Amino acid sequence: MSRLARYPAGLPSLFLVEMWERFSFYGMRAILVLYLVDAVETGGMGLQTSEAVAIYGIYSAAVYILALPGGWVADRFWGARKAIIAGGAVIILGHILLAISGSTAWIFLAGLCCIAVGTGLLKPNISTMVGELYPKDDVGGRDAGFSFFYMGINLGAILGGFVAGYLGEVWGWHWGFGAAAVAMALGLVNFLYAGSRSLQGKGERPPPKVVDPATRRRDHLVSLGIVGAVVAILVLLIGTGRIDVTSAEGVAQATGVLIVTVAIGFFLNIYIAGDLSAAEKKRMIVLAVLFVGAAVFWSRFEQAGSSLSIFAAELTDRRLLSFEVPASWFQNLNPAFIILLTPLFAWFWTRAQDRGWEISVFVKFGLALVLVGLGFWILVPAAKIAMTGAKVSALFLIGTFFIHTCAELLLSPVGLSTFSRLAPERFVSQMMGFWFVAASLGNLLAGLLAAGMDTETPSALPGLFNQLFFGSAIAGLVLIGLSWPLTRWALSGKEELAEDERARP
């Protein structure tokens, strides 16, 4: 396959849709925690840091866990195209509610709920449509295509961080939220235009698989059992006082239990009652292992919106000549590095496949976990400087974001590519949703890890950053060690998957 064919005609259209959607999401994310902790007198909510980061974790988790029902709706009813259109419209409504909420908390919360629901419909299904553009045996081309698509995500993120972050911090928080609504509207218009041209025929509902009554009955029984188990576990934990749902941190803990049980239940439902072949079940085990690795990764990486955001705002010297850099702008470092490094990574994936180099997805994920840990390790001496009361050089955070970006490019676009390639054909959108549940769990854990961060007396920071380093690095080394046996057992020792292999009994 030529290098040009690895960037098919529909890819730039999906790139632009995702760019504007991520503008809206990351623009709002850049100012959310800062808005929540800002004093009421200056337009904020006046919350404690622990409450604000817990709310951030709950919201971020909801955005990604709702990708599961979003994928289910597409697979069963609408198809990916209609789900994306509906999701975009609901996101626009959510940002409008944030912009007009003023001091009315319920309108603000309704806006967050709309954004979460809309993103759940859009995120897994636009990734599914990217996967539809490639044959299943083109591993390198697919990885390169998703890397290009991922650059759209981060171009939108950097634009959103600059525009919404600046408007929010300088003009007023709700100006930033309003800018995000305009961006999502541009993305939706672009998608509607492309639907009749470069994306025509893509994203339709997959043909339903005919199943016998016994299989359908087993599916229903497994689903009911999973729902019952989720409810019973939550009732038990709340009833015994192990989880206190009267605080944001308690709700975050309850949400974490919910995410874990839903993820396990969803996986078992497809694995047991999905009428899968033996080969498909082995590939499902691969995806489950990658899910765990991704959750650990995102729990570290998503400190960018919580602990690293507060670190930038309160402990970092942000002076640049006579200008003080807004704290929210530090989050633009990651998407800026993504844009710079993506062409290099995309070139490497296609080059590696052309030369016959076999680089297991487990190795890629393992290296990503090690690198994201190293990003926190270099912050340990910075935290010790902060303990003396001095402001920390911005170079520490710049270095951390650069290392984290390299780690992200090894994991996130590769994970999207792998899930779209290895998922059973009739469950592709749902399995893309399952991938985003890993991000949901990681985002929630990131908020809980940051909830104990005390920036006024930062003596606990070296311990926190060391904890983040060792937990991630150990998980990465384990994943690298499992690479050869898992690839041999589940994928017959190779990454490629033939076009007809999914249906093989």
Automatic annotation (TrEMBL):
Primary place of residence? membrane
Q: What Pfam family is a match for this entry?
A: PTR2
Subcellular localization is given as:
Cell membrane; Membrane
* Cellular component terms (Gene Ontology): plasma membrane
Any single GO molecular-function term of the entry would be: peptide transmembrane transporter activity
Q: Which residues cross the membrane?
A: 23-40, 52-74, 83-100, 106-126, 147-167, 173-193, 221-239, 251-272, 284-301, 329-349, 361-380, 392-411, 432-452, 464-484
Which superkingdom, per the lineage? Bacteria
Question: Tell me, which GO biological process terms does this entry list?
Answer: oligopeptide transport
Name the membrane topology term: Multi-pass membrane protein
Q: Which PROSITE patterns match?
A: MFS, PTR2_1, PTR2_2
Q: Which UniProt keywords apply?
A: Cell membrane, Membrane, Peptide transport, Protein transport, Transmembrane, Transmembrane helix, Transport
Which SUPFAM superfamilies does this one have? MFS general substrate transporter
The Major facilitator superfamily (MFS) profile domain extends over 1-488
Q: Which Gene3D superfamilies match?
A: MFS general substrate transporter like domains
State the PANTHER family in the record: PROTON-DEPENDENT OLIGOPEPTIDE FAMILY TRANSPORT PROTEIN, RESISTANCE PROTEIN MDTM, PUTATIVE-RELATED-RELATED
Classification via NCBIfam families: yjdL_sub1_fam
Specify the protein name. Answer: Proton-dependent oligopeptide transporter, POT family
